[in-house]
Amino acid sequence: QVQLVESGGGLVQAGGSLRLSCAASGRTFSSYVMGWFRQVPGKEREFVAGIRWSDGFTDYADAVKRRFTISRDNAKNTMYLQMNSLKLEDTAVYYCKAIGVRNDYWGQGTQVTVSS
């Protein structure tokens, strides 16, 4: 059974940093693209960053470029999102997603709250 478990969310002041983790289990993810998405109440879930597990190729939403860094640790089957220079508008529930050829999987989400 595939499981994605996020951790690392919390409350941080504007300008601060957090690192989110997504621990993946249940299968090999070498052929997957992994991503971070976020959602605030009343809005659509939006793409934040993605990484191709096989070669580490990355992509970012414009709103987080040069502030967030996505990475993965193959040995630990874990994906990370380093978030720096956090802004109030980064407040959201952050979800990790595994995107495969046949199946997609979501984690349960972790809350990130940025205060002024």
Compact overview of the structure:
The chain has strands at residues 3-7, 10-13, 18-25, 33-39, 46-52, 58-60, 68-73, 78-83, 92-99, 104-106, 110-115. With 116 residues, it is an all-beta fold.
Low-confidence stretches: none
Helix/strand class? mainly beta
Largest beta-sheet details: 7 strands, mixed
SSE sequence, one letter per element: EEEEEEEEEEE
Number of strands: 11
Fraction of helical residues: under 10%
Q: Compute the CA-based radius of gyration.
A: 13 Å
CA distance, first residue to last residue = 40 Å
Description of the structure:
The protein is mainly beta. It contains no helices and eleven strands. The chain has strands at 3-7, 10-13, 18-25, 33-39, 46-52, 58-60, 68-73, 78-83, 92-99, 104-106, 110-115. The strands form two sheets. Strands 2, 4, 5, 6, 9, 10 and 11 form a seven-stranded mixed sheet that branches. A four-stranded antiparallel sheet has the order 1-3-8-7, with no helix packed on it. The termini are far apart. The model has no long low-confidence stretch (mean pLDDT 96).
